[in-house]
Amino acid sequence: MTSLTAPLLYSYRRCPYAMRARMALLAAGIEFDAHEIVLRDKPAAMLALSPKGTVPVLALADGGVIDQSLDIMQWAFGVNDPEGRWQRSQTTANIELLGVCDGRFKLDLDRYKYPERFDETDRALHRDAAVQALLIPLEARLQVSPQLGGEIPCATDIAVFPFVRQFAAVEPAWFGALPLPALRTWLSDWLSQPLFEAAMTRLPAGQATRFPRFNAAESA
Ligand SMILES: N[C@@H](CCC(=O)N[C@@H](CS)C(=O)NCC(=O)O)C(=O)O
Fold first, then answer.
1. Digits of tens for pLDDT over the chain (220 positions)?
2. How far apart are CA 214 and CA 200, in angstroms?
3. Which residue has the least CA distance to atom 2 on ligand 1?
4. Which domains does the chain have, with CATH numbers?
5. What is the pTM assigned to this prediction?
6. Could you tell me which residues come within 8 angstroms of residue 36 by beta carbon, excluding any fewer than 6 positions away?
7. Cβ contact 30:7 at 8 Å
8. 55 Cβ inside 6 Å of ligand 1
9. Is ligand 1 within 6 A of the CB of residue 54?
10. CA–centroid distance, residue 143 to ligand 1 (Å)
11. Is 15 in the pocket of ligand 1 (CB under 6 A)?
């Protein structure tokens, strides 16, 4: 592989794991190239770096490869994290919440959103289980403070948000009627954040492109 001048992120715009990685890279002010992949036709270069074939994959200029979204977030905030987003995310409560998000909640979310992929006939069961597993505990947390990081966001907010967004978008009216007001406020705040908008920039598929820089100060 030719040497990289900037980290290269293999990404997929709508993937919640890739979203959290892009948001962390942008929040940390890291310049990176992104290669928007087509999931059914993954680039050979990406598979050579990470044969498990999931995005995101971050190829570093020093030859290192990081192929788990949370590890990419940790790496990004390890480079630059003036607000201490990573360190403030490392509470027992936040680590447990993230474990539920990536575990039980994701499993139920997939069976609720894509029942046909799982031969699932009772998607409401998974929808309700997802609410119990993550959304109700999230509501309890957000009743106490506006962000999982307290008054300002931490890495857990960034990591969990794309998954709650995906859940809410399956049946917006049903989600909107849930007795989860603090969660809804948190979600709509994140949906309108310039950081999220920047992370959702559309790039041409199939090639590496410099990801437009995000300047938090300019966007405030
Ligand atoms: N544990 C991985 C999970 C990543 C993942 O499952 N990404 C999905 C897209 S959202 C993927 O690439 N799936 C492979 C496929 O659909 O072929 C991470 O945190 O990065």
1. 567 889 999 999 999 999 999 999 999 999 999 999 999 999 999 999 999 999 999 999 999 999 999 999 999 999 999 999 999 999 999 999 999 999 999 999 999 999 999 998 999 999 999 999 999 999 999 999 999 999 999 999 999 999 999 999 999 999 999 999 999 999 999 999 999 999 999 999 999 999 999 987 776 5
2. 12
3. 68
4. 8-83+196-219 (3.40.30.10), 85-193 (1.20.1050.10)
5. 0.97
6. 11, 12, 13, 203, 204, 205, 206, 209
7. yes
8. yes
9. yes
10. 31
11. yes
